[in-house]
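Key result, reporting period 2: structure in, sequence out.
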């Protein structure tokens, strides 16, 4: 795949994946289109040499894998790439309906470490999954996406808050409820579940009663090139759907002789402690089914390698002092190896050297990031997975601006270059 097609399909994937549930559905559709077979955790698995499979959990996490056609997994180990499907955002509350000052609003809570200021004055829609009873009392679920901009969080005018540009704090309970419509006094109390039922019925779902949902807000502005020479890609959820997408494309090109696994976990932005998160049992349980015999599994993992792909902080020209002077990654300067002395990233010198050697093979430049010594550091699924599996692991990512904002910015060269390295990695190099 050339860079133009790669970035075109990346933007399509981002636009089609407003929530982790939609992202997993998009990944699954691409995998099935490439011949991967869907597995169910509740079924017995009859895996074949050379087979390509995927399995999901909670509809928000996915593991896809290619098995070698001749050699056993013990002989060459596995090559694993990990990413996460969730992004910081606003999530609707279970009882969100509010009627205040003649307006119909919905209450929200903050999911993950979201940068909140950019959520104001955006054209917002709502998407996620809904569980409902049909007319026969059968419990069902469906993905849903309002698609149209149906909500907004209006800013308070500068005339009513003269200090807004100097000191602005956001109270999530008071300041973030969505405005959906006018609601004059005297009208019936609004009911969001009734609205959901109508929307689902309109899309052909046999809904009698909505029981529950997991719904998130998102900005309807589509991904776009930005820059005089289209140097940048601007989009929501670059952290970390970008890594899910490039891991997918690399897996689709994996050499048939090498065991390769793509892991896309949910809940990274809230600590990964869930049945489908990286600090849960999903990956280990899949590996136990691939390699039921303990000794064989231990030998395979000892010969395996993992790359945790998650976005890195590009050096911001207006805030260059927030970076260590020798470790400020430049957008379109190549993928960034992420290093931390306190194991917030899983990189060590051996895994870093291996990645640099791979990048050299495909002529991709490499950068390095370490946080300023007087600042705190984020983390990824890398250390969690390395601790569970004992696999040599590297943390790497594409340099990004405005991480955790409603709209982030990355380079139009970097994702493609990291994909090229991961494709080489999946080939068994």
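The corresponding designed sequence is given below.
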């Amino acid at each position: 795949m050339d860079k133009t097609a790669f970035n075109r399909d990346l933007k399509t994937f981002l636009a089609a994946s407003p929530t982790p549930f939609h992202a997993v559905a998009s990944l699954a559709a691409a995998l099935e289109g490439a011949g991967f077979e869907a597995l169910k955790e509740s079924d017995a698995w009859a895996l074949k040499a050379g087979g390509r499979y995927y399995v999901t959990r909670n509809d928000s996490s996915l593991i896809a894998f290619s098995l070698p056609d001749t050699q056993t997994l013990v002989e060459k180990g596995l090559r694993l790439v990990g990413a996460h499907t969730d992004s910081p955002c606003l999530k609707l509350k279970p009882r969100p309906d509010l009627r205040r000052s003649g307006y119909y609003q919905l209450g929200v809570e903050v999911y993950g470490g979201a940068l909140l200021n950019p959520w104001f004055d955006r054209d917002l829609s709502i998407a996620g999954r809904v569980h409902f009873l049909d007319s026969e009392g059968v419990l069902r679920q469906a993905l849903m996406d309002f698609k149209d901009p149906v909500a907004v969080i209006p800013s308070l005018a500068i005339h009513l808050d003269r200090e807004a540009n100097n000191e602005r704090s956001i109270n999530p309970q008071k300041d973030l409820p969505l405005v959906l419509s006018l609601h004059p006094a005297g009208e019936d109390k609004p009911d969001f579940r009734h609205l959901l039922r109508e929307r689902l019925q309109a899309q052909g779902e046999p809904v009698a009663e909505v029981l529950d949902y997991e719904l998130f807000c998102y900005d309807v502005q589509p991904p776009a090139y930005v820059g005089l020479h289209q140097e940048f890609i601007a989009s929501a959820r670059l952290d970390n759907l970008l890594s899910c997408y490039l891991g997918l494309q690399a897996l689709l090109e994996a050499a048939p002789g090498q065991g390769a696994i793509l892991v896309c976990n949910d809940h990274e932005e809230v600590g990964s402690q869930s049945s489908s998160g990286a600090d849960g049992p999903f990956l280990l349980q899949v590996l136990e089914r691939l390699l039921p015999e303990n000794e064989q599994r231990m030998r395979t993992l000892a010969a395996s390698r993992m790359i945790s792909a998650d976005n890195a902080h590009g050096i911001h020209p207006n805030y260059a002092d927030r970076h260590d002077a020798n470790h400020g990654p430049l957008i379109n300067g190549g993928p960034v190896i992420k290093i931390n002395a306190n194991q917030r990233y899983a990189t060590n010198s051996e895994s870093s050297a291996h990645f640099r050697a791979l990048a050299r093979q495909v002529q991709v430049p490499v950068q390095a990031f370490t946080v300023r010594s007087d600042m705190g550091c984020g983390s990824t699924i890398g250390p969690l997975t390395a601790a569970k599996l004992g696999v040599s692991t590297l943390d790497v990512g594409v340099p990004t601006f405005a991480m955790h904002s409603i709209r982030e910015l990355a380079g139009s060269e970097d994702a493609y270059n990291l994909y090229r390295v991961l494709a080489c990695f999946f080939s068994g190099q």
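Residues 3-87+236-426 form a domain with the Aminopeptidase fold (CATH 3.40.630.10). DSSP finds eleven helices and 20 strands in the chain. This case is discussed further under Risks and Mitigation.
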